[in-house]
Structures are given as C-alpha cells and as structure tokens.
C-alpha cells in the first residue's frame, strides 16, 4: 500500500467560510480499517466550516504519515477559460488569479455575493456552461464547473473551495502533492490531494444509516483505501490519455477514478 491514511471529503459551497455546514463531511480510513467520520473540533458549532476543515487538513498532512485525500469539487477550470482570459497555463498562477477575483475565503463572504457583483470581481472571470474539462466529458454525469443552481452541480463548491486549496498549498508547500498538477506520479511517502467524484462509486455501496453527504465522504475514503490495498490505485493515477488529453488534464485537472 502506498498510503497509511485515506480521507474522503464531501464538500459544500453554502453560506460563508466560517459557517457550520451540515453538507460538509469528512471520513478517514486508516490502514485496512473501515472509514469513520471525523468530527469538527469542539465548539458551539455542530458541523465543519470550510475554514476549520482547511486548517485541520494542514495540521493532519503536516506529518510523516503518507495520506491520500479525495475532495469532491473541481481543482481547476477548462482550457477555454485560460484561453479566454489569456492566463498562463500554470496551476498555482491560476489559483492566485482566481482568488483575487473570487475571494471566497474571506470572512463572511458567500459565493453568491461575488456572483451578484457585491464583492470581488467575478464578472472579469466568469465561465461558460458549455465549457467542460476533458475529465468532465469522461466521467459519466459530471457537469460543467460553471453550471450553477442545478441538481448535482459542483460549481458553487468549486468556487468556494479553490481558495482553500491555495491556502493548503501555501501552508504545506512541497510536503503535499496536488495531483495531477504536481505530476501524475507522486513521490514515495508524500501525501496527495486529488479531486474525486463519489457518484462513480456511491450507488454501489449500501448507505446504511448515513445521510447522503456522509455517504459520499464515506465512499471516497473507502474507495481510495480499497483501490490502494488491491493494487489498482497506480492505474487510476496514470489514466490512459492521449498526449493532447494529458497536456490539457495537467492544467484542467483530472477526477481520480475517471477512465
């Protein structure tokens, strides 16, 4: 096995970065163990906030324990977005540019505030719902990262979560490998953070007494653990792509598990 811990996160773009969000859930599997839910730190709030979750991930990954984290939102945008705004094909630069226009990590900031033009400068960095990443086209059911306000959309969670990926990267630097932007193959012993899409597996796993959000986070952690234990993970981390597709995916990102 390449990793010792597996963390599944079902993300939420609701409300603000400090809000207690019922839809934001984290599960962890250690070794060959069954995933268990990770509660937020003790506070009057019952559920995780995005800010607390990012801080917990920084603390958890700042260790010698190789950990694989799967997060349920897009990590980048389609290549048309980069071309339209004449942006360098560089993921860290994309994160910086996005956060300047969509500062959804600021206190009391909501995605909708920026969409409505009240704060930030989202109008200068809007996408088109017809733009889809290569991985969105390959993963059955995946929607455009710009398709807001429809069932199954990850647009709001993506626009809320991208600045927190930037925060984690700034805090941990080379101690964490963001796949595939830092390379399709992660160095041995390094923790990895990857985009996932739990709908690829959640329908095949009994829900038991979990809520839909709990179930998605549980399925992420469980699938990552099983894929590593059974020797399939390396194949999923090196998907069969043409040279052109791999070049795009290195900028647009890829859903781990999509084929």
Keywords:
259 residues, 34% helix, globular, alpha/beta, six-stranded mixed sheet
Task: Write the SSE topology.
Elements: E1 5-10, E2 25-30, E3 36-37, H1 50-61, E4 67-71, H2 79-84, H3 91-101, H4 111-115, H5 134-138, H6 155-172, E5 176-178, E6 191-195, H7 212-229, H8 233-236, H9 243-252
Parallel strand pairs: 1-4, 4-6, 5-6
Antiparallel strand pairs: 1-2, 2-3
Describe the structure.
Helices cover 34% and strands 10% of the residues. It is an alpha/beta fold. Strand 2 and strand 3 (36-37) form a beta hairpin. The protein has one domain (5-186, 207-252). Helix 1 runs parallel beside helix 6 (155-172) and helix 3 (91-101) packs across helix 6. The mean pLDDT is 95. The longest helix has 18 residues, at 155-172. The protein has a 6-stranded mixed β-sheet. The two termini are 21 Å apart.
């Amino acid at each position: 096995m390449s990793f010792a811990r597996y963390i599944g996160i079902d993300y939420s773009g609701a409300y603000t970065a400090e809000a207690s969000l019922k839809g934001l859930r984290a599960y962890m599997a250690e070794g060959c163990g069954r995933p268990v839910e990770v509660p937020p730190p003790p506070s009057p709030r019952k559920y995780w906030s995005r800010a607390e979750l990012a801080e917990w991930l920084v603390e958890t990954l700042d260790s010698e324990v190789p950990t694989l984290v799967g997060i349920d939102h897009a990590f980048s945008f389609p290549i048309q977005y980069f071309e339209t705004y004449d942006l360098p094909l560089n993921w860290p630069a994309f994160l910086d540019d996005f956060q300047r226009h969509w500062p959804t990590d600021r206190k009391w900031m909501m995605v909708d505030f920026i969409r409505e033009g009240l704060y930030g400068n989202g109008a200068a960095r809007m996408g088109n719902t017809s733009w889809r990443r290569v991985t969105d086209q390959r993963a059955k059911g995946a929607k455009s990262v710009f398709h807001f306000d429809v069932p199954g959309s990850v647009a709001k969670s993506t626009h809320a979560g991208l600045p927190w990926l930037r925060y984690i990267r700034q805090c941990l630097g080379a101690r964490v490998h963001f796949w595939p932007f830092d390379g399709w193959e992660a160095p041995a012993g390094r923790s990895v953070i990857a985009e996932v899409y739990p709908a690829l597996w959640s329908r095949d796993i009994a829900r038991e007494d979990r809520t839909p959000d709990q179930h998605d986070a549980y399925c992420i952690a469980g699938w990552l653990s099983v894929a590593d234990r059974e020797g399939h993970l390396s194949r999923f981390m090196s998907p069969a792509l043409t040279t052109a597709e791999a070049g795009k995916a290195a900028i647009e990102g890829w859903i781990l598990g999509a084929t």
